[in-house]
Amino acid sequence: MNPTFTDSSRTDSTYSEKPMYYFEQSFDDDFTPILEAVKTWSGGEQKLKLGTYNSISAVHQDMHDLVELRGTEGLEVSMQLAESLALSEGTLDYARSDGRMFTDGPPDPFSTDREQELATLNYTYDIVPNSGGTFELQSLKTWERDGKPYMESIALGEYDTVNDARREQTILKSIRPIDGLQEEMNMVERIAIENGTLDPNRDDPRLFKQGPADPFKTRMQRAMTMELYSPPTIQRVELQPEADIQEESQPVLAISVDMDM
Q1: If we measure between CA atoms, which residue out of 169, 106, 95, 105 comes closest to residue 137?
Q2: What is the Cα–Cα distance from 59 to 53, expressed in whole angstroms?
Q3: For the CA atoms of 196, 200, 206, 209, what is the dihedral angle to 10 degrees?
Q4: Which of 160-164, 213-217, 241-245 comes out lowest in average pLDDT?
Q5: What is the 3-state secondary structure of the chain?
Q6: Tell me: the pLDDT tens digits for 205-219?
Q7: Taking the mean position of all CA atoms in its chain, how far away is CA 108?
Q8: What distance in Å separates the CA atoms of residue 38 and residue 24, rounded to the nearest whole number?
Q9: What angle, rounded to 10 degrees, do the helices at 75-89 and 113-120 form?
Q10: What is the distance between the alpha carbons of residues 168 and 192, in angstroms, rounded to a whole number?
């Protein structure tokens, strides 16, 4: 029998019940042992794979650790360990913009590590005067860790007047409410490249190198991801009909797919 955890400190007008949580040993499609975290409620359930194992005993060991941690430290700590397992398994993205483990059903009564990261993560701008009389527009990333504030900045370009820098800043700030952070940061990247403060051929495709993983992908990151995938090549091949079966038949067209990936 799988241990079941019931808890709720959050409310939602759509749900009045408390969700239940447990860990379950199961099998993948190829009958490989796996460990899953399961959330259930009256309207359904959602599962998250935490790991793939070589033996059932290895699954039971991790399950035992999760259940024991729940008993000693509480549901949130147990689920944060489950989150780290899912990150290692690749079923959760460490840079996800939605920090939850479960995206369906009633609200969860715990916060994931990623949710806590995102709660302190912010992106804004600053205008810094230079000694030569120009003004530098900077994109700032700020966050907290263990109660301490941190910041990283990147230069977007130099402007002759503070009003020019403010005008660019206003344009950038207007993007997020309409098109989201992803589009805003893509414009930041574009401006920095056009002004020569960011190398378009840099080895590290990110904008920011420090702090929590950014909940957006730069244009360069997306381009590199596309290059890793080579779509199948489709060729038209003309097949000649057999003369002894149908002498007057028209050529038949077939499709061959070259899976050169």
Answers
A1: 169
A2: 6
A3: -50
A4: 241-245
A5: CCCEEECCCCCECCECCCCEEEEEEEECCCCCEEEEEEEEECCEEEEEEEEECCCHHHHHHHHHHHHHHHHHHCHHHHHHHHHHHHHHHCCCCCCCCCCCCCCCCCCCCCCCHHHHHHHHCEEEEEEEECCCCCEEEEEEEEEEECCEEEEEEEEEEEECCHHHHHHHHHHHHCCHHHHCHHHHHHHHHHHHHHCCCCCCCCCCCCCCCCCCCCCCCCHHHHHHHHHHCCCCEEEEEEECCCCCCCCCCCCEEEEEEECCC
A6: 999 999 999 999 999
A7: 19
A8: 7
A9: 90
A10: 12
pLDDT in tens, 168-215: 999 999 999 999 999 999 999 999 999 999 999 999 999 999 999 999
Q: Tokens in use for 182?
A: 């992803």
Give the model's pLDDT for residue 242: 52
Contact indicator for 200, 191 with CB cutoff of 8 Å:
no
Please state the domain extents for the chain: 4-117, 121-227
Task: Report which residue type is found at 60.
Answer: H
Question: Phi, psi (5° rounding) for residue 100?
Answer: -70, 160
Encoded tokens for 193? 């490249």
Q: What would the two tokens of residue 151 be?
A: 């910041």
Q: Which residues pair with 40 in a beta bridge?
A: 20, 45
